[in-house]
Specification:
Blueprint: H1 4-18, E1 28-30, E2 39-41, H2 43-51, H3 55-65, E3 71-77, E4 81-86, H4 88-100, E5 114-119, H5 133-148, E6 152-156, H6 164-176, H7 199-215, H8 217-232, H9 235-258, H10 269-272, H11 276-285, E7 290-292, E8 295-298, E9 312-315, H12 323-338, E10 342-348, H13 352-364, E11 373-379, E12 382-383, H14 400-417, H15 425-442, E13 450-451, H16 454-457, H17 465-482, H18 496-505, H19 508-517, H20 522-541, H21 550-574
Parallel strand pairs: 5-6, 5-10, 10-11, 12-13
Antiparallel strand pairs: 1-2, 2-4, 3-4, 7-8, 8-9
């Protein structure tokens, strides 16, 4: 079904067209003066200059053509606003359609389309830290929103599992364990099935080797050589690489599971490597790449850029590939395997230039057709109260599992204060902590930096995840006391609070559409915060369970039950869910 705004916008556009004006002027929005009306159209103001006519006259001409069947009132207000209030029958009918639809009446605008979302970007052999948080949280929410709207959605973690980091680890392991059979170039036969190191040991090796390479040129050369030999297929190094992948991916899965973040594909840079030689040869042979100081580059500046866009490097002067090469080859793989209509990348916004270069190169070289949307969603940083990137107490980069554990402990104390039964404390605290973490992040626009504050994010009041969960739990309690409610239809109401709640619930579909159109889950957060506030205001001002008129009571119950479904669906789209009690 069409959402309410789209439905009445369609009628308003027809009225503008019938009155002789551009139908696009008929866009309807939620009223910014709810004391006067529920929806409004300001198109007459925009039309005045174009049509050299007073906006009040245009507005009056338009409403003469408007089909008013579903409006209780249509008014023109100086200097040319068109104010709209819905009829009881129309509003009730829309909400009843939502109630009886498993998908809450949301139109599946993505049906038949495929989207790939590249979010995660973790490096193997390294622990997840808070720098990985926003990619995981925002990407998971966008994946769920796309899927909810009918898209065939593929979430790909795109692991950093190739390149110099592997050479550094291999070179350091060889220094420490030269006797290991992996380092014997003449060895043939099978290698051990089990890794000779743990995830803890591996996570110590990489930063040590990385720091060492910066001060020890000989070691840096050995690491570079190990990288080249790994990529050429040296058996012992490949066996070590498989061990690294085995234990790293298992650890990454565990940490992502803690965040309730789940990928459909666990592909990495290594999966694109076999495609690079043919891709590079084709790009060269077709003249898209040129030599520049010994390196092969793809010029991507189009002459209209306000600032010059440097060429995309395809191969370095030593013939080695870089991130851009791998990203182009990954696009080759994605177009071959999935032919997506849209590909989204979630990374730190400081990588914007890199993706601009890669996207332009992919278009120029025919890797990605014009019909496929390529979009980089660059996000800001999560900062501490001092406004600087969030760190541990001793100033180090905080591991993601440490942040989750600390937030869980912080919330657990609040849960115990609320006298939750002992057997439910841990599960309840885990859900509230996750809501605090994810909502605290997602309620900010992705591109903005924000301050992470335990006290504010975990508060049970205000614009927080726990407040949204508390509202859901409160509604569940009312419904449990009432009894069977699933069959109850939405009814007309004379209660002003119920009317406000109906209008708020009715905006769900348009808010989901807006969140996807703008790649901004914060719009969904803002919506459910407003909805939760309306629910709680209705609860405090209206007798629900004590209402004597059973028909009126049933209408109230049906309405809050629908509000609960909208809230539950919304928090699922944001990546968390509500506990049984709080």
């Amino acid at each position: 079904m069409k959402n309410i705004i789209d439905s009445i916008t369609e009628r308003m556009r027809q009225a503008f067209a019938d009155a002789g004006y551009d139908p696009q002027l008929g866009q309807v929005t939620v009223s910014d003066r709810p004391d006067l009306c529920e929806y409004q159209c300001n198109g007459a103001l925009a039309a005045a200059k174009r049509y050299k006519c007073a906006p009040i006259l245009i507005a009056k001409a338009v409403i003469e053509k408007l089909d008013r069947a579903d409006f209780a009132s249509v008014d023109v207000v100086m200097p040319g606003f068109i104010n709209l209030t819905l009829s009881d029958d129309f509003l009730t009918g829309c909400l009843e359609q939502m109630r009886t639809d498993a998908e809450l009446g949301v139109e599946k605008t993505g049906a038949g389309k495929t989207v790939v979302i590249d979010y995660g970007g973790a490096n193997v052999a390294k622990p997840l830290h808070i720098g990985h948080l926003r990619s995981a949280i925002i990407g998971e929410s966008l994946k769920r929103i796309h899927r909810f709207l009918g898209y065939n959605t593929i979430g790909d973690v795109h692991l950093g599992d190739w390149g110099l980091q592997m050479g550094l680890i291999i070179a350091e392991l060889q220094m420490r364990h030269p006797e290991w059979r992996y380092f014997d170039p003449d060895r043939t036969g099978e290698y051990p099935a089990e890794p000779p190191f743990s995830i803890g040991e591996l996570e110590e090796v990489y930063p040590y080797a990385s720091a060492k390479s910066k001060s020890d040129p000989d070691f840096a050369d050995r690491a570079h050589l190990a990288t080249v030999e790994l990529q050429k297929g040296r058996a012992g190094y490949r066996a070590l690489w498989k061990h690294i992948m085995q234990i790293s991916v298992a650890d990454l899965r565990k940490n992502y599971d803690e965040l309730d973040v789940h990928f459909d594909q666990w592909l990495g840079e290594s999966d694109a490597q076999p495609l690079i030689p043919d891709m590079v040869e084709r790009i060269k042979s077709q003249g898209f790449a040129v030599l520049s100081d010994g390196a092969w580059v793809i010029p991507v500046s189009d002459g209209s850029d306000k600032t010059e866009i440097p060429p995309c490097i395809l191969l370095k002067s030593d013939g080695s590939a870089i991130y851009a090469t791998t990203d182009l080859a990954t696009l080759v793989q994605r177009m071959r395997d999935w032919a997506p209509d849209r590909i989204l990348y979630l990374t730190d916004k400081r990588q914007a230039l890199h993706f601009e270069q890669v996207f332009r190169a992919a278009r120029k070289c025919g890797i990605v057709p014009a019909a496929t949307e390529l979009k980089h969603i660059g996000f800001g940083t999560m900062n501490g109260r001092d406004g600087k990137p969030f760190k541990t107490r001793d100033g180090g980069v905080m591991r993601l599992e440490q942040l989750i554990a600390e937030l869980h402990d912080f919330v657990r104390d609040k849960v115990i204060e609320n006298r939750i039964s002992e057997d439910m404390v841990e599960s309840t605290a885990a859900k509230i902590a996750l809501a605090a973490l994810k909502y605290g992040d997602l309620s900010n626009h992705p591109t903005k930096d924000y301050i992470f504050d335990f006290d504010r994010f975990a508060a049970f009041e205000g614009d927080t995840g726990p407040y949204i969960l508390y509202t859901i739990v409160r509604i569940r309690s009312i419904l449990t006391k009432y009894g069977a409610y699933e069959h109850l239809p939405i009814r007309k109401t004379a209660d002003a609070g119920a009317r406000d709640l109906m209008l708020s619930v009715g905006r769900f579909s348009s808010c989901v559409d807006a969140a996807l159109a703008n790649y901004a889950p914060n719009l969904l957060c803002a919506y459910i915060y407003e909805l939760a506030g309306t629910v709680n205001k209705f609860y405090h001002e209206t007798r629900i369970l004590s209402e004597r008129d059973e028909s009126v009571k049933a209408g109230y119950i049906a309405l809050i039950a629908l509000a609960k479904r909208v809230l539950e669906t919304s928090v699922f789209l944001l990546g968390f869910d509500a506990p049984e009690r709080m």
